[in-house]
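The instructor's notes for this session suggest beginning with a concrete chain rather than abstract definitions. Hand out the sequence below and ask the class to guess, before any prediction is shown, which regions might be ordered.
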Amino acid sequence: MEERELRELIAGGETMTVEFKRATTLSDLSDRDLSIALACLANGDGGVLLMGVEDDGRITGVGDRHMTTTDISRLRLEVARQTEPALQVDIAEHELDGETVLRLTVPASQIPVSVGGRFTRRGRRRDGQPECVPMGIAELQSIALTASGIDYMDRIVVGARWEDLDPAEFERFRRLARAAQGDAGLVQLSDRDIARALRAIRIRGDVEDVTLGGIALFGTADALERHLPSSRAQFQVLRGTEVVVNEERTGTVLELVEWLGHQVEQRNEEHEITVGLIRLPVSRINRRAVREAVANALVHRDYLEPGAISVRLTDTELVVVSPGGLPRGVTLDSMLEASQPRSAMLAGALKRAGVVELAGRGVEVMFEELLRAGRDEPDYSRTAERSVTVALDASAPDRAIVRFVTALDNERSTPLSRIELQVVHALRDAGAASMVDLESMLSAHASRLRGVVRRMTEAGVIEVRGSGSRRDYHLAARFYRMADEGTAGVRISDIDAVRHPHLVLELIDRNGAVTRSDVAKLCGLSPEQASALLKRMVRAGQLLQLGQKRGTTYVRSDG
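After discussion, reveal the predicted structure:
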């Protein structure tokens, strides 16, 4: 790390992955306290600890810890000795403002790290500042099971028997699978055979063991209360700050999926949008997106955490909150690409029941459904350390988007992909955008996005104007014709009125002069539109016209 990068790190202050520690004397920071701080970082996302930097970012340096010096090898060995499992730390020495600063880097640990039996992780105080907080037994269990690849739901429940599984819940599974085209072969089987196929029970000789997943999928009310009391859901309807509906239910995963779906559907309504001669119904609350959001919450929630999943409906959005943070190894940035369910068993069961269409694609499906229905993409920004929150847009749909996308989907052999839909929405919002702007708006890898934009341009979904650094993209003209919105056309016209003269002048600076044909190609205009633009620039004193008819060229005006 260069000095500039280190100073930038210090200037950014303490974060969830950056910790400062005063270390002018050994009494400021003992080896044990240092080990606790490093274990705390390792139990989160990993990070950097800077010894010799005050909490406010002042550089005070590291004093001598080992007689007349600080022995880095000895310090590294002491941290490994204090931590369990032994923590491997990378230590680098830097000189800043005449003081020695030690940079200690630790990766995220897949196994919880303790110091003297004490487990901590990075958390936040009420004021939002980072701190080390104790890790509870439930959290430690969850992390340990995930790290070891053990599905918590696949564990045998001591004392549970076949009688703890409800025949009515097996019928619910069959009904859902038939209605949603789930696993047709499975619905023909007996209750016991279904239970074996879904690992709800396991056979050991003459012994029939019931798994926790079996209780989650088919358990009686009594079995849920005894073995899985966290299998609960809450549904609320808010009008402003007033709670008009507040209901809670304990039930199997499949029961809660049905109950929450029914609660939402009771309050759903449809908008009717005309696409050509077709009247297209668009639900206020997208059914498929809601189903995926609820199923994700039930499959990915941490059942070792107390509390219910929460579904809250307001005038503008439907919010689903799931106890437990994101599964280890999944971040908000990677969740569209990475699928790592807490319980592969539950995910597979819901797939075979037809509740979700393809295990592992829930987030992608929600994005596609909402964007295709003319709404904002799912919002995960309210996700916290111990809960995952997704908000689904339930406001009025963008009718222009719906018409345009529906027409394109009907014309193409394959529907628009998620990233293509994101490009359409981005250009709808911006009017026009450069490739750099699109990369910033969509946070997509440049190489992938460039290929998508090129294919969309070739297919006539979007158009390009300008060249080089002035190359901008906007939705095809047919979008605005289908939208039947005067303001949208004006928006593009206003942008062009400013941009086109600049493009013409730049081309003249490069080539010395331009023709009407040059301008038409440059700006994507018809010959008549190019002539009108050049005449306006002549009248404005920006250009001089040289020659007549076919030999006409235009140059910059000296005035």
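Then share the key points. The mean pLDDT is 86. The chain has five domains: 3-135, 152-227, 232-393, 399-483, 486-556.
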